[in-house]
Design a protein that fits this description.
The complex is a heterotrimer. Chain A has 8 helices and 12 strands. By secondary structure, chain A is of the alpha/beta class. In chain A, helix 5 packs parallel to helix 6. Chain B has a 6-stranded parallel sheet with strand order 2-1-3-4-5-11, with helices on both faces. Chain B has a 6-stranded mixed sheet with strand order 7-6-8-9-10-12, with helices on both faces. In chain B, helix 6 runs parallel beside helix 7 and helix 8 packs across helix 9. Chain B has 2 domains: 167 residues, Response regulator (Rossmann fold), CATH 3.40.50.2300; 127 residues, Rossmann fold. Chain B is elongated and about 55 Å long. By secondary structure, chain C is mainly alpha-helical. Chain C is 74% helix and 2% strand. In chain C, the strands form 2 sheets. A two-stranded antiparallel sheet of chain C has the order 1-4. Chain C has a two-stranded antiparallel ribbon with strand order 2-3. Chain C starts with a helix and ends with a helix. The chains are: A alpha/beta, B alpha/beta, C mainly alpha. At the B-C interface, helix 1, strand 2, helix 3 and helix 4 of B face helix 3, helix 4, helix 14, helix 16 and helix 17 of C. Chain C: GO terms for molecular function: transmembrane transporter activity.
Amino acid sequence: MTATTNQPSETPIIEVRNLVKHFGAVVALAGVSMKVHAGEVLCLLGDNGAGKSTLIKTLSGVHKPNGGEYFVDGKQVTFQTPRDALDAGIATVYQDLAMVPLMSIARNFFMGREPVRKFGPLKFMNMGFAEDVARQEMRKIGIDVRDPGQAVGTLSGGERQCVAIARAVYFGAKVLILDEPTSALGVAQTSMVLKYVNLVRSRGLGVIFITHNVRHAYAVGNSFTVLNRGRTLGTFSKSEIGIEELQNLMAGDKELQSLSDELGGMV
Amino acid sequence: MASLVKKLLTAFAVAVPVMMSIAPAAHADGERFVFVSHAPDTDSWWNVIKNALKNAAKETGTTVEYRNPPTGDIADMARIIEQSAATNPDGIITTIADFDVLKASIEQAIAKGIPVMTVNSGTADQSKQLGALMHIGQPEYDAGKGAGARAKAAGVTNFVCVNHYITNAASVERCQGYADALGVPLGDHMIDSSQDPTQVYNKVKAYLTAHADTNGILTLGPNSAEPTIKLLRDTGETSKYNFITFDLSADISQGIKDGIVESAIDQQPYLQGYLPVVLLTQYKRYGVMPANNINTGPGFVTKDNIGLVEKLAGEYR
Amino acid sequence: MANSETSVPAARSSDERLRRQSILRSMLSRPELGAVAGAILVFIFFAVTARGTGMFAADGVMNWVTVAGQLTIIATGAALLMIGGEFDLSVGSMIGFAGMMIAIPTVYFGVPIALSVLFAFCGALLIGFLNGVIVVRTRLPSFIVTLASLYILRGMTIALSILFANRTIVSGVKNFADDSFVSWLFAGKAFRGFFIWLAEAGVIGTLPNGQPAVQGIPAVVLWAFAIAAVGHIVLTRTRFGNWIFASGGDANAARNVGVPVARVKITLFMVTAFCATVYATCQVMEFGSAAADRGVLKEFEAIIAAVIGGCLLTGGYGSVIGAFFGALIFGVVQMGILFTGAPNDWFQVFLGLMLLTAVLFNSVIRRRATGER
């Protein structure tokens, strides 16, 4: 099990080494290392409790790590707030928490970064600009928004994820962290999101794609990191590992673990 | 969805005639007067006045509308007086619960040419200053002082004034008059009991426990008197205090008969409802009006005259 | 995906069609539509039942306009806060407390009226700030936190007024405030000349003494319009307004994209306190007194107006224009019932029924318009 990357020459956009995070006595991350390059989709696989969400939250500046190093474009960083991470070009799209369903597409699109127009000392939100941009950006990814003033709640789940991704891309994200973007979606919706992830990658962004689903991961991923109990079980490029093997790595390990428990640690 | 709209419209179609059938009743041939009180909806004492208004309206062939601010907010009462004036009634009867607040509204009504009489709360001076025809009521401070004089004669030296309507200035006047007659500063002898019977009960209990030398009790109406009577029955201290209360109710009458309550100050509210309607009607019809204000109280109800009063308490007394 | 750059003309033509649809749609999906429809219904109702009672004469109109105006002031604050996802039940107590903060320093400590008013506003903003901080920091429901404030403020109003003034109604503010700028600002009457002209022209009635039946527009009504207008613009046309929607719609999502949710909510609590103080100041200046029981239950009227106006109790949706019409409905119904001469004992029943009808009607209209499921 040798950890490799597919583009060793380039500087990765994000790299973490031996990241450690505990909450009181609970060790959530016990030394995780991984890197993502531009134009690469890194899939982060693992079962519940493997430490995926802690890792994302640490990468996006919500949690501060207790140990290890964090590099962006080769420079070491410490993020105090999610805003810092965002300013460094690291955008996180959370599964359910990306959009406000009651707000319009345009308002959601610019939430937290509203375009303003000045009238003397007064600043007003430029709604015309917001609606035009939202409409254009959505058309770019093939979603015909009937009205950017319509509530996000009227969109399908896949469309919502795409709006969230389009928003991150529009605001100059270099790395997208996608938290289980396909877990609640049907087949057609999933393929819409996966297609879009591929499009974003081809534009030269780095993507960290978190999922349970090996098939979704294999469809878009360039490399795969499997997490278990706060540690990496290894990182593999697509050429190194088949979908079956990947599946076995996720599932088999669990079976081994339970077998080992049953036999009192003999295996 | 469409059916719901239809249902709503049907509901309105029913509601409109109902409201309309009420509206014309308010504009019968006879004169129409509006009586505006300051009492919140929960104050049952005003039932006697409502009955008096009904009787007076029936006897004179007039219509009387009773109005009050539901929460007892006097600022809301000012709006109700303005509203009443806007309907151009033949007369307005109002209390002067707060002179400053109601001044502008009452003066506006008078400027509009509407005859105004003041009753109950407020003083004769205030009434005159507003330009009202006359004041019918019981001077609060004097009534309190009268009660205080009785208490002093009975040997009271230390007292508690149970105020269930502390936000009404008149209620404080009553306690003040009582205190002045005794020659004791009011200070913390007045407690804010609130209107809730359980709270009144417990607050009075706490006060009497903490101030064992108390020998006089003044309550400002049934709301504070009834729980206090219950308390004294429960503790068995039925004759320990010189207990005077404002106003009457069935419970208070029983208390007087049992000797728990020494006397009740009766301001004879029936007259405050009945007289203004009758007088305004005569004024409207024949232009006659007594030259003086009318004091309906204080009258003291004691064991000696409780018989007749008791029969009518809560309805006409 | 490749088609994104190719089909420009087609996209443009479809765009125009969609734009037209969007104007119609956005008009229909506005949250205030139901309240406007409800207001029209209420006016029709009273036009029939209260005809000839003086309700639509000049002084009658000014009567319910004033009541609706007062309510608009606090309803605007309540609506913004509700859209931001929180409640403030201490509005009514705040009215009483702010009134005392003006009256006691003025009457008992000789503080100039302008300073007393400034003091009241500062005090109220501080209380609003504390409400907000407690809600944000403890993450307790604002319903509970401000329910506590309701009691604390009402209790302090009574206790402090007894302590300083030995009474619960502090009168005589007018002796210190008449002819002052503050009195003009909060209790003046605007457009007096216009109303005299209207009376001379016979458009409105005159009193026997020659004065017009209505002497001017009370300042409280102008305040209502100003506060509602500013509230509406801030909500719909500024960055902060977008943050209000975001904070109320989904605080976590808002936080994730960098919206300072805590700051937004605290600010909104201060806004409701500010509105309550404007209400209180207008009242104290008009009546010349403050009382410990002023504003009892006004918090519910403010919330009712906001809900009639289309605000969701769960936050994230609503409008100030809607709250404005909600306050109008409430004011008109409250006073209109009195005009119809309905028996007093049934007043609250009628009030409740009419409000229920208005709310139902408005929610039906809104659902039809937005195609909500």
